[in-house]
Amino acid sequence: MTVSIVVAAALVGPAVFNDHMRRAGHGDQPDVLEHAQEAFYSAGLQSIGIGLLVAAVGALLVSVVTTRRLGRWLDALGRGALRVSAGRYDQPVQLDGSSPELERVADAFNGMSAQIQTTEARRRTLLTDVAHELRTPIAAIDVTLEALEDGVLIPGPDTYATLRAQSARLARLASDIRDVSTAEEGRPRLSLEDISTANVLEAFARQWTQRFAEAGVGLVIPAGPGVTIHADRARIGQVLDNLLANALRHTFSGGHVEVRCSVSDGLVLVEVVDDGEGIDPRALPHVMERFYRADPARSRADGSGTGVGLAIARAIARAHGGDLQAHSDGPGRGATFTLSLPSSPNLHRS
């Protein structure tokens, strides 16, 4: 850059200077012209030299200041990375006065740290919950085997049934943990196709009517024309299975469960409404969390559920671009679970 400035000044300056001297009437005065040229060269070179020196000093100062500030910002990012690697996620990286580009880097880093913190919290909660859930069936199997060894129990159908039931409970827990982890990570495999809600509900009527009748609970599932949706038949079946099993588990003999299907604001709504136990307002925001139970003692005692069915159902609904919501007016006043799914682009009654 410096060489370019000097060369440009040497080539352009004298010609311009001589032209101005001739216009001023000094073109026929060689002595005056020579002295003026010498003065011009000297002044020009000194000016250029001083200017370049000032520019170099200024550039050096700016470079030092910028390098120091950049070093502080990079050091802050480095310390933040060390904190995250050490498992400390509660101190976000602050880059005060940095450039917009570095601010975006800091925001992305803090977002990543928050996501890691959430994932780590879920992992710890899951391990705690799984350990708690495994304790009951393992204890039951252990007690049964100990009684057999001591001769307190005689091997027979009841003993084998107990062992099979607890073994099945462990298998169901393992399957549910796999399903909820897959679904909540947003990577369930969906085999999408156009399906009719009428056909799906008809199949569920055949599958569940007898079970509800044996429990003394009435079941009403709409028949007739339904709505075509673009969804995974098996996954939607899994959601409805969970909702009906949940409704049956929390509805007393003599109660009723009704399934409703409608379309609203471009969404297909499938509601499972019961007049059973209802949900306490304090528990309502948590009913679809993993392993949450409003009455943990009862369900753990009878092994009626692993506590992840609703979490799986909601995750599957969201994987379809929909949602699953719960509503209850309180204990003893029943509950409504609403599955919402985006309508098919070619929505029609079928």
Automatic annotation (TrEMBL):
Domain Histidine kinase intervals: 129-345
Keywords: Kinase, Membrane, Phosphoprotein, Transferase, Transmembrane, Transmembrane helix, Two-component regulatory system
Ranges where the record places region Disordered: 322-350
TM segment ranges: 41-65
E.C. code: 2.7.13.3
Residue ranges of every copy of the HAMP domain listed in the record: 68-121
GO molecular function terms listed in the Swiss-Prot or TrEMBL record: phosphorelay sensor kinase activity
Highest taxon, organism lineage: Bacteria
Compartments where found: Cell membrane
Compositionally biased intervals (Polar residues): 337-350
Enzyme class, UniProt record, top EC level: transferase
Name assigned to this protein: histidine kinase
Top-level taxonomy: Bacteria, Bacillati, Actinomycetota, Actinomycetes, Propionibacteriales
